[in-house]
UniProtKB/TrEMBL annotation, chain A:
Protein name: Membrane protein
Family affiliation: Belongs to the ThrE exporter (TC 2.A.79) family.
GO cellular component: plasma membrane
Keyword Magnesium: no
This protein's UniProt keywords: Cell inner membrane, Cell membrane, Membrane, Transmembrane, Transmembrane helix
Subcellular location: Cell membrane
TM regions (residue ranges): 6-23, 30-49, 55-73, 80-100, 120-140
Annotated source species: Jeotgalibacillus soli
Entry annotated with the keyword 4Fe-4S: no
InterPro entries: ThrE_2, ThrE_Dicarb/AminoAcid_Exp
Major site of localization recorded for this protein: membrane
GO biological processes: succinate transport
Domain Threonine/Serine exporter ThrE: residue ranges: 8-136
From TrEMBL, chain B:
Lineage: Bacteria, Bacillati, Bacillota, Bacilli, Bacillales
InterPro entries cross-referenced by the UniProt entry: ThrE-like_N, ThrE_Dicarb/AminoAcid_Exp
Transmembrane domains' residue ranges: 145-162, 174-193, 229-252
Main location: membrane
Topological category with respect to the lipid bilayer: Multi-pass membrane protein
BP term (GO), one: succinate transport
Annotated protein name in UniProt: Membrane protein
Origin species: Jeotgalibacillus soli
Length: 149, 253
């Protein structure tokens, strides 16, 4: 188990940093991209491993990714999108979408629709996680403004 | 008076150039609008309005004279987060009052023409390493690592290459997914790879429209319904292109 987790940590870090390169993120932010991706993925992985529903696991992971990204964006005065993108990519339900497509091709429409609906739910969960963190961000900003006034 | 009028046009040009660079490099719509209005405000334009969609920017400033409005068209959209960050820091310096209008224009022009992207070889290498890593993350076995790397790298390379050859995004993504599928099949067929499903899933990951998905959500939430839906549609088209490319291969299995 420890080896599996270590492998997941290392690969998710490298994958997220590599995505930073593909999207041409600034050099100095690549390590941070990797960290965001790694933390988000390990949250998802552990939750899914302990039997939490995939949708819930995705919401939690996306939320944590977005929160860390916003903290980084504030700290380093960089657009938040640079960190969010690299972290979100691993959560995209590629495997489920693939299986859905596979069932469509083999004319097993019942299974295909099932899987497609699941992929859709997970995409929605990613959006939900980002939105939640945005809400919290706005709340903090507003409370800051209020305390200044 | 004449000079004052000219300066207002300069301010418009600076804001528009900043907006253009950001939008072309893949920034969120609300960030583009926000940056343009902040810049104009920093140069003393009290009221400005911007309307940004993924394909064009309208910007108008209001002063004592009649309202001035300009429209620019955005035809190329790439992903270049470094430029977004660079324009962001320039705009920060403008709002701090560190740059004059002409200095800002020169700096933005430099950002616009500069090529700050990572070399293509490095990006292809990154795509192939990412594919291998995704394979492991999606419970693949290490035996397939090399196969996923090769398929993913070549897939990303072909999307870049075909996009130059035929500037239709859907087509180049379809072909890239097709190539990924064929390569993965060949690897499994020759015994170099073990699990076709895992190799394909890992290798198509560099093609996934991650930036579009996040931008679409953030734009929708910021109230930019038009841009959000447009980006969502673009992401969906990309996903559909990848899906059909893979589906073609699966049909012949």
């Amino acid at each position: 188990m420890a080896i599996t987790i270590a492998a997941q940590l290392v690969t998710s870090f490298i994958a997220a940093a590599a995505f930073g390169i593909i999207f041409n993120a600034p050099k100095e932010s690549l390590i941070k991209c990797g960290l965001v991706g790694m933390i988000g993925w390990i949250v998802y992985f552990m939750l899914a491993f302990y039997g939490v529903d995939e949708v819930v696991a995705t919401v939690s992971a996306a939320f944590i990714i977005a929160v860390i990204s916003q903290v980084y964006a504030k700290l380093y005065k960089t657009p938040v999108i640079i960190f969010t993108v690299a972290g979100i990519i691993p959560l995209v339900p590629g495997g489920i979408a693939y299986n859905a497509m596979r069932n469509f091709v083999t004319n097993d429409y019942n299974m295909a629709i099932n899987l497609a609906a699941k992929a859709f739910m997970i995409s929605g969960a990613i959006a939900m996680g980002i939105i939640l963190s945005e809400v919290i961000n706005q709340l903090i900003r507003q409370s800051k403004l209020n305390s200044k006034a | 008076m004449e000079q004052f009028l000219e300066e207002q046009y300069d301010i418009m040009d600076v804001s528009l150039l900043a907006g253009k660079i950001m939008l072309e490099s893949g920034a969120e719509t609300y960030r583009v609008e926000d940056t343009m209005m902040r810049m104009a405000a920093a140069y003393g334009i009290k009221e400005s309005h911007s309307y940004v969609t993924p394909t064009g920017i309208m910007f108008s400033i209001e002063t004592e004279e009649p309202t001035k409005t300009k429209l620019i068209r955005i035809s190329v959209r790439t992903t270049d987060l470094k430029k977004v960050a660079m324009v962001n820091s320039t705009s920060r310096r403008i709002t701090n009052g560190e740059l004059t209008v002409s200095q800002a224009y020169r700096e933005l022009k430099e950002i616009h023409t500069s090529d700050v992207t990572f070399p293509l070889k490095l990006r292809i290498a990154a795509a192939s390493i990412a594919s291998g890593c995704f394979l492991i993350m999606f419970q693949g076995s290490w035996i397939d690592f090399i196969s996923a790397m090769v398929a993913g790298g070549l897939g990303f390379m072909s999307v870049v290459y075909f996009e130059r050859l035929i500037p239709i995004k859907f087509f180049s993504e379809f072909i890239a997914a097709l190539i990924v599928g064929i390569l993965s099949f060949l690897f499994v067929h020759t015994g170099l790879g073990m699990h076709l499903d895992r190799i394909i899933i890992g290798s198509v990951m560099p093609l996934v429209p991650g930036l579009l998905i996040t931008n679409a959500v953030r734009d929708l939430m910021a109230g930019h319904l038009l841009s959000g839906l447009a980006k969502g549609a673009e992401a969906f088209l990309t996903a559909f292109a990848i899906g059909s490319g893979i589906a073609v291969v699966l049909t012949f299995l």
